[in-house]
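Q: A reviewer asked whether we had any structural model of the full assembly, not just the individual parts. We don't, so I'm hoping you can provide one. Inputs are below.
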Amino acid sequence: MRKVTLIPGDGIGPEISKSVTDIFEAAGVEVEFEIENAGEKVYNETGELIPESLYKSIEKNKVALKGPITTPIGKGFRSINVYLRKKYDLYSNIRPIKTLPGIKTRYENIDLVIFRENTEGLYIGEEKFENEEQTSAIAIKRITKKGSFRIIKAAFEYAKANNLNKVTVVHKANILKITDGLFLDTAREIAKDYPGITVEEVIIDNMCMQLVMNPEKYQVIVTMNLYGDILSDLCAGLVGGLGLAPGANIGEDIAVFEAVHGSAPDIAGQNKANPLALLFTSIDMLKYLKENEKAEQIEKAVLRILEKGEVLTADLGGSATTEELTAEIIKNL
Ligand code: NAD
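A: Here is a predicted structure for the entire assembly that you could use as a starting point for your response.
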């Protein structure tokens, strides 16, 4: 049985994680979850934000499924999520965005993937006040050739493997000539090795407009950390919202799968959360583990339910609880 670390997380995390484990069990998936937690809840219980056993489990299993984590303010970590991505050098944040059957949205036929650089950019956490009065502050954005190369290469390799013929590189090199310029130049260099793939360079502000006007024009988008973070929420909104948007953080030998959304404190503990973002995330995890048959079985069950549109959670306009939707998926397996 393949072991995978499961980090249920905070807020709605435990509810949606239970949904996934129940569905995996019902489908007979050959995965054994090793449960380790981190975040606010663990801190309140043990005084530790990330217990040592969690690191050990991830390092042993190499694959983790993670719920959203709330980082308590002023407890030594800027963000536990960002910390884990950095610690394990999970440089590719991959966020697929796809139109789903039965989900009412403004657009049809969206099928794109965002490759967001996950370890540098403005998220390195180097910011400070410049004067005693604290009326002026700066943040450092670090872009390296190595960091840019590996994420852009991953995006091109994905396009090639999936027979896609366009990669869109998103930047602001007209203003940030050195940092974004380095990212863009690296993309131009890599593009030479992929003659069959058209490279499109789009400035981030224009990209936002293009995505709300013609999102179906895009296939693979690759960009730096902050732009990727913002674009992925924007794109999640195009296909039905955060309750449906999966994601993965992938490094050289460790992968942590997590949905785009956060801990949703406004609906936590109310049996209202949509478990599908984490379920789609876990389906992608199964594909990564080459458990394609089970991945497809679960995916088909979910798509059937969405098509019918009878059992949906509140974020999708329905009235089903997390548990009712979970039971319906199990019935449809
Ligand atoms: P959020 O994603 O938690 O919530 C935004 C809105 O979307 C809320 O109205 C919420 O109810 C709704 N929503 C999110 N997921 C949903 C789901 N599965 N089903 C139904 N509705 C859903 O964003 P936020 O409120 O900005 O952040 C809350 C906390 O989560 C913060 O502490 C933040 O730091 C943390 N966070 C963690 C991660 C992560 O663990 N990777 C990511 C983003 C935010």
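A: Points you may want to mention in the reply: The pocket of nicotinamide-adenine-dinucleotide is lined by residues 12, 68-70, 81, 242-243, 258, 261-267, 273-274, 277, 315 (CB under 6 Å). The CA atoms of residues 313 and 320 lie 5 Å apart.
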